[in-house]
Known about the structure:
The protein has helices at 2-5, 7-16, 21-43, 48-70, 90-120. It has 122 residues and is an all-alpha fold.
Amino acid sequence: MSKLFDFEQFKGQMYNQALPHALATVLIWTLPGIEIIAALLLLFEQTRLAGLYLSTVLMILFTGYIALVLLGYYGRVPCSCGGVIKSLGWKNHLFFNLFFLLLSILGIFTISRERRMVTKYR
Length: 122
């Protein structure tokens, strides 16, 4: 939601990233909506697994981007992200993402296992 509340700042941050301008433009107009969809899917038991998969994919992509930045792939380190975690540097952001990525994967395994158990005993 922070991307939408301060859309101009989000847009500026995206254009400052080490991404092609065209990709940044696509992300500016699609990423907030995709994140909202993921959050809504997580709210309901029937769609929670789909929400976990979507959020996991988003976290994998962003964590990969952070890793590439830290490895010097892009030749420059852009400014950190805004929003809720704007005080984190790139290295701490990587650890933050890895932690929540592991939680997301654990959630996928837990829900999948529970659904298999329910199906097995029906």
